[in-house]
Design brief:
The protein is α/β, with parallel strands linked by helices. 45% of the residues lie in helices and 17% in strands.
Length: 426
């Protein structure tokens, strides 16, 4: 290989000395030399041990190690593998990867809302066996893993949404249809219902079913939003007032996942909005009395409005710059095949995106997975610009605190919408 490179360099040098237009020829020589050097590097890499790094949340390591063992067994004799798991939160994948793509993991899980940014940055290797993967997985999961007609990741789960957990010791099936009914039960029992109002992910629940509009513009960066509207059956201030009314209940508390789980374990919390990632712990705490349903309705402008949600999917991606990209693609495919989606369900109660796995009788018996499926009817894919998050956090925390400064509600809505729709860098 080195002799080939030297030969090309010598040949191009001679040409440059004897022909006109040497500048263009020299540039071509440089490109060819670089390509040959890249080929040599690839050959050197592929001739040794296949080293792959996988980012994953530590709670999934035991399960993933089983998948890695079966992968090595599957391809025994074809290569020697060193596959390393590194702790990284799924929610941080995009930010960490785009911070330094070349130092990123070879294979990594992430939620669908991170896909567009990673594709735009050229960070993801397209799925080579796309037709096979598309045929095996749910249509929505495939769409969530694609940009245009190109599949950029392997669908893994179809349960990345939220719904209502509840303790059947306290609530009937009729109670959980409305938030008013649930709060009344919890107040009478001296217990709590939780929801995380510090997150725009959850706060979308109050806006999506009102007829007001929100979404990402064609530039893929900025948002449009009229949640401060002063017209229509439901106005922006109606939503703010509805949230203040909920926050005024002694049974409502603004808590994230950690406090939600702590509350169900000590008995103070009897219902809460969360997702399937907490199903194992909820089941441990409430046993046969654990229930899960779609989100309830809430009272807004004298109407019962169905709470909505962002519905989401998780997938496995492969770093475009992986030194062993072909093997990384095989590993990502292996992590997400039907067999391992079944294993993921059995060990982590994660809802499959694989059609066959999702249709199993065992999956149908899990209340949390059935709840996220039911809620998906009232959900939309999360496609938002970055300016969405901080304003919603400020607004949600203020509502949960009861608007302590007494700021005019229209002013609050106007400020939030202006920040949500601001140009990037503004």
């Amino acid at each position: 290989m080195k002799r080939k490179i030297l030969a090309v360099i010598m040949m191009m040098t001679v040409l440059c000395m004897t022909l006109a237009g040497c500048g263009n020829t020299a540039q071509t020589a440089t490109q060819e030399t670089a390509e040959l050097q890249a080929d040599e590097a690839t050959e050197a890499t592929d001739s040794g041990v296949v080293e792959l790094t996988v980012w994953a949340e530590e709670a999934n390591w035991e399960m993933l190690n089983k998948m890695i063992d079966s992968f090595k067994e599957k391809y025994a004799g074809e290569a020697e593998f060193e596959i390393t798991l590194v702790q990284e939160a799924d929610a941080n994948t995009k930010d960490v990867l785009l911070g330094d793509i070349y130092a990123g993991a070879d294979v990594f899980p992430f939620a669908d809302d991170q896909l567009n940014s990673m594709v735009a940055a050229g960070a993801l290797a397209p799925v080579p066996n796309a037709d096979e993967v598309k045929a095996a997985n749910l249509e929505d999961a495939v769409a969530a893993s694609s940009v245009g007609d190109v599949l950029y990741a392997y669908p893994m789960t179809a349960d990345n949404g939220f719904f209502m957990y509840y303790d059947k010791n306290y609530f009937t099936e009729e109670d959980v249809k409305t938030l008013d009914g649930m709060l009344a039960v919890a107040e009478a029992a001296g217990k709590q219902i939780t929801m995380d109002w510090s997150s725009g992910w959850y706060l979308y629940a109050f806006f999506g079913g009102t007829g007001l509009e929100f979404g990402i513009n064609e530039d893929g960066v900025t948002n449009y939003c009229n949640w401060n509207s002063t017209e229509g059956a439901i106005k922006g201030v109606d939503i703010a007032q509805a949230m203040l009314d909920i926050a005024a209940s002694p049974a409502f508390v603004n808590k994230g996942d950690v406090d939600f789980l702590a509350g169900i374990q000590d008995g103070s919390v009897i219902a809460g909005v969360s997702g399937v990632w907490n199903e194992v712990e909820v089941r441990k705490a409430w046993g046969d009395n654990y229930g899960a349903v779609k989100l309830p309705t809430y009272t807004c402008a004298g109407q019962q409005v169905q709470m909505t949600s962002f519905k989401g999917y998780k997938m496995m991606g492969v770093n475009y710059y992986s030194k062993h990209k072909d093997w990384a693609l095989k590993l990502a495919d292996w992590f997400t095949n039907e067999e391992n989606q079944n294993l993921r369900f059995e060990e982590r109660s994660q809802g499959p995106s694989n059609k066959n796995a999702a249709a199993s009788e065992e999956v149908k018996k899990v209340p949390a997975i059935q709840a996220v499926i039911a809620q998906s009817e009232y959900g939309v894919l999360q496609r938002v610009g970055n300016t969405y998050w901080a304003p919603l956090t400020e607004f949600g925390n203020n509502m949960a605190a009861g608007n302590p400064k007494g700021t005019d509600l229209q002013e609050l809505m106007d400020v939030m919408v202006a920040d949500v729709t601001a140009s990037v860098g503004q």
